[in-house]
Every structure is written in C-alpha cells, then in structure tokens.
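Quick one, tokens below. Sequence please?
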C-alpha cells in the first residue's frame, strides 16, 4: 500500500488552490494511504477527501517549532512519496522514496497558483482543477440553511485584509439590483458568507439589503458545510479570499473582485469563474506593503461595472 505525505497551505485559499494535485494522487492510487499536513484553518477541508487517512494539524509555533513537530510525527514512517507545497525542507529529513517540492516563489512570473501547484507533479500542461469534498452531514446542513431550489445569490463581503474589501454599501446595492424587480436574479435569496471575525462587515451589508430575503451564514458553518451551501449558489460575488476559491471549486458561477492583488496569480479557477478589477497595477511584490493598509483600496471599482459583469455571468451560466 502506497504511503503519501502531502504538505499543504495554512491559508484556506491556498489550500483550495493546491487541492487539485491531492485529488490527482487519490485518483491515480485509489488504495493509497494519504496523510495531509496543514494549518488549523484549512484542516476541515480534508475531512471527507478520498484516500486521506490522517490530517496533521500544524499549529504555528515560534522559531518554526511546528515544522519540528511535523518531523516528529512523520519521521517514523517510510513514505513512498512526499509532496511539499510549502518548500519547508521537511521532506529532506524523512525516509521518502520520492520527494516533490514547490520551490517556485508564489506569484513569480504571474503564474497562477493552480498551475504552480500542478507543476510540482509535472501536471502543469493540464492542471487538475481545485476540489472540495462534501459529506452527507454537510449536505444536510446546506438543505437546512438554504432549502429548496430557489435561486441563491452568495456574497462574501469580507477578506483577510481590509485593503481587499469592496465597500459594504456597494455589495448591498449590487444585491438589491440583482434580486429586485427586473434584476438578473429577481426574487433570489441572498446568503452572506464569512468567518467568525467578519460579523461587522456582514452586518453592514445585511442592514442595507432591502429587495431580498437574507440568510446570514457568517461564522455559522464549518468549511465543509460552507462548501455544500456554496454549491447551491446561482452566483457568488466576493473579494479575493478563501471563500471565493471555495465557491469556484464548488462549481458555482464566481465573480471575483480584485484591485490591489493580482488576479493572474490568485483569480478564481474554473470555467464559470470571472474577475473584475479596480484598475491600476497589480503586483504580488507589493503585498508586504499593502497588507499594512487599514482601509479599502477597492474604491475604484464602481457598482455599474460589477453589476454588468454579474449579469453577463448569470446569462452565460444559465445558457
């Protein structure tokens, strides 16, 4: 039986973008025992993943102590394959017949993260798409939260950093225009997604939506339940965030809103995924500087452009 160690990202978005190679390994060796090592936030994504027998949660420690913890957990196993998406050097100190490491720096050459991940296994010519694995428990929760077949407009108005957040009042205005009389999703329910720390942003959006019934799921779901709910969306609109990548992997039509970050590297991936950006330069080399900004840098993205892009994507996906 093949033993595989897959070391993946801490951030939810990167973990989703790196999930294609993991799915490829499970398909290629269906009898393999796969161990996934990742950060606490991303860990729930793999609870229903086929072939995954263990998830090692790496809680960050000072001085890189979490890598030493991982080595202690894995050094006693003879691995057939170690795939290290983090380029942590851990694999060099393990007993592995084969080691594949993602040496490329994120964003270098504006290559998308999905292609970057696929290249680790030599699959960049035909990169496997990101995957989400949803279990029956999550599907039941999605049916409870968003019952029936009524159209759902999913919004994710928060992001990991304020500079990536489109203004709350524009999210609300977009929802009112799409779900109100004559809108492309007239009569649809609005579902707001976010993590426990996103409540203030979600409340600001919800309070200004007047044309639709709103289900606020902020902080109410685990990641697999969120994935099951996102599968039901007729359209997802959100900032550059982990939820945006989850929605695309779930198969929903996705409109990603970009400004200071680079959609060439972090755009949503899939045949029904589109981006609209605020304009101006986008370079991942600026991320260290931008991440200290305490206010939105998305003001240049006006409502009319997003509304037009959303209506076009709805029409295209329905066709």
């Amino acid at each position: 039986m093949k033993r595989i160690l897959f070391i993946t990202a801490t951030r939810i978005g990167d973990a989703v973008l790196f999930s294609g190679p993991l799915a490829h390994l499970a398909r290629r060796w269906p009898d393999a025992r796969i161990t996934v090592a990742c950060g606490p936030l991303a860990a729930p994504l793999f609870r229903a993943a086929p072939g995954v027998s263990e998830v090692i949660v790496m809680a960050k420690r000072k001085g890189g102590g979490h890598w030493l913890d991982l080595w202690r957990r894995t050094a006693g196993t003879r691995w057939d394959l170690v795939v290290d998406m983090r380029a942590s050097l851990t694999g060099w100190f393990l007993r592995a017949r084969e080691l594949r490491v993602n040496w490329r720096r994120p964003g270098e050459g504006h290559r998308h993260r999905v292609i970057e991940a696929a290249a680790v296994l030599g699959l960049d010519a035909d990169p496997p798409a990101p995957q989400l694995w949803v279990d029956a428990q999550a599907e039941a929760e999605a049916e409870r939260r968003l019952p029936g077949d009524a159209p759902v407009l999913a919004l994710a108005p928060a992001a990991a950093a304020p500079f990536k957040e489109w203004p709350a009042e524009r999210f609300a205005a977009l929802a009112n225009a799409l779900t109100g009389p004559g809108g492309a999703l007239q009569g649809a329910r609005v579902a707001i997604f976010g993590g426990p720390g996103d409540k203030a942003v979600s409340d600001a959006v919800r309070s200004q939506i007047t044309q639709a019934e709103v289900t606020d799921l902020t902080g109410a779901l685990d990641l697999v339940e969120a994935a099951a709910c996102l599968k039901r969306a007729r359209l997802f609109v959100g900032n550059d965030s982990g939820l945006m990548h989850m929605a695309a992997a779930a198969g929903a039509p996705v409109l990603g809103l970009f400004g200071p970050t680079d959609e060439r590297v972090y755009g949503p991936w899939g045949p029904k995924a589109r981006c609209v950006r605020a304009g101006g330069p986008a370079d991942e080399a600026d991320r260290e500087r931008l991440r200290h900004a305490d206010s939105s840098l998305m003001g240049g993205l006006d409502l009319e452009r997003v509304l037009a892009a959303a209506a076009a994507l709805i029409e295209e996906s329905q066709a």
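DSSP finds twelve helices and 13 strands in the chain. The domain at 137-318 is CATH 3.40.50.2000 (Rossmann fold).
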